[in-house]
Amino acid sequence: MARRIALRVLRAVPDGPGIRRLVLADPDGWPLPRWRPGAHIDLHLPNGLVRAYSLCGDPAEPRAWTVAVKREADSRGGSAWLHEALAEGDALEASAPRCTFPLAAEAVRHVFIAGGIGVTPFLPMALTLLRAGGDFRLHLLHRGPPPLADALAPLVAAGRAVLHDTEAAPRPALAELIGPPGQGVQAYACGPENLLDGFAEATADWLEGTAQVEHFHPPILPPDPDARPFTLVLARTGDEVALPAGADLVAAIRALGGAVDTSCEGGICGACRVRWLEGAPIHRDRVLRPAERATDLIACVAACAGGRLVLDL
Ligand code: FES
């Protein structure tokens, strides 16, 4: 199981409609693990819930992590607890940062499309590109007052961010905001599913890997028709178990004594990433790139096309 990091809440302040910004630090003021723009952390709440949030502060600031929590109307105790029960000075545990939504290092122009609180991963990306003299444009679609307005203000003033209040004007066409594909152009989107669907449509003819998205909510996955019964083997202990098609791999790993973290339990956060050594895994996640799938799988959604599946656990 991955190490959890003990934190203290330095600040907890409102920062937009239904949004609470949390600034978290080591209890003794030590530097925190470094992170890349686009990274997120899992917050482990005392009620047992785990919630993932993008880091939205300054990656060059080693002593504080900032996240922005939107109070979900149908909260099951995650965002509601973070809004109503958590106070400045309280202790909180988190995972180390994981980056499943990185800046494309080879790109020369970046176009960010954000919906509401989906702007969070783009703030540290923008800061990093500003410092490096990178070329980017952020479009934020929001209804009413924008989230994290203070952090956005300098980007707007510099002409790098454009705010589109869809309560005040019709929603602009995403294809026009994104612009055409081109050599070295990378497009990104984060926000609600309807925005991501529109983004996927607008970038359907872009080269693979040049348009990337970050999901808030895991998709509903039907059973995979190629899944077959298989034998799961943990290589480090040699323990194995026969499983039916489509079995819950995380539960099976844990039943064999293996350690695997989970957060979203839907293939979008990467917490349950495991190396595999042998077999025919079926990948159903939205985290790994094709090259990464040659060595790793996302256990909470992976299945197996039969035979033996040997994990490096
Ligand atoms: S728990 Fe999030 S991808 Fe598996």
Question: In brief, what are we looking at here?
Answer:
It is built from six helices and 19 strands. The mean pLDDT is 95.
Keywords:
seven-stranded antiparallel sheet; binds FE2/S2 (inorganic) cluster; 31% strand; Rossmann fold; five-stranded parallel sheet; 313 residues; Elongation Factor Tu (Ef-tu), domain 3
Mean model confidence by pLDDT? 95
Strand content: 25-35%
Report the CATH architecture of the largest domain.
3-Layer(aba) Sandwich
For CATH, the homologous superfamily of the largest domain is named as Nucleotide-binding domain of ferredoxin-NADP reductase (FNR) module
Global geometry? globular
Overall structural class, as computed from helix and strand content, comes to: alpha/beta
Number of helix segments? Answer: 6
Name the bound molecules.
Answer: FE2/S2 (inorganic) cluster
CATH class of the largest domain: Alpha Beta
Q: Can you summarize the main beta sheet?
A: 7 strands, antiparallel
CATH topology of the largest domain: Rossmann fold
Low-confidence stretches: none
Number of domains: 3
What is the terminal-to-terminal distance?
Answer: 11 Å
Order of helices and strands: EEEEEHEEEHEHEHEHEEEHEEEEE
Fraction of residues in helix: 10-25%
Alpha-carbon Rg, integer? 20 Å
- Strands, total number: 19
